[in-house]
Design a protein that fits this description.
By secondary structure, the chain is α+β, with helices and mostly antiparallel strands. It is about 40% helix and about 25% strand. It is flat.
Length: about 150
């Protein structure tokens, strides 16, 4: 399970909204000096607050520090769906248009149409599974009042 610390900002029945601080590991990377992501981190762009709705069975209040978790396999599958599937749609549509003997502008338009169609497919799938509790982040534990938390 991938864990992240945060602070409860809102409570609703069966769930809480948690504010997390997005962090980067750029400071420990050997390519930090020559990397655009490292530059963005030094400029403070990467340190943004994120809000996550997490399922919770604990009695929590606004301001409580918690640890939320997401299953690793869920993260991998979601990443593949969001990033790889549209690229495959783009490539597949371009190859199909090229195989049909269409000119280059039509191949490009076909590729963009494939990208857009798979993007719509990903959005449709996301909306269908948005309320599935097995695919939601969960509150793993509450931290003690003196414990570390996202500030």
């Amino acid at each position: 399970m991938i864990e992240e610390q945060g602070r409860v900002v809102a409570v609703e029945p069966g769930a809480v909204w948690v504010e997390t601080l997005r962090k980067s590991t750029c400071s420990s990377c050997s390519a930090n000096a020559a990397c655009g992501q490292g530059l963005m981190e030094r400029l403070g762009v990467g340190r943004q607050r994120g809000y996550v709705r997490a399922l919770c069975q604990l009695q929590l209040a606004v301001g409580d520090a918690v640890v939320i978790g997401v299953r690793e396999d869920l993260l991998v599958r979601s990443s593949l769906l969001v990033y790889l599937l549209p690229l495959l749609g783009l490539l597949g549509a371009a190859l199909l248009a090229d195989g049909l003997g269409l000119s280059e502008p039509w191949v490009i338009l076909g590729a963009l149409a494939g990208l857009f169609a798979t993007w719509l497919l990903v959005r449709w799938r996301a909306s269908r599974v948005a309320d599935d509790p097995t695919l939601q982040p969960v509150v793993l534990r509450a931290l003690l009042a003196g414990g570390p938390a996202a500030s």
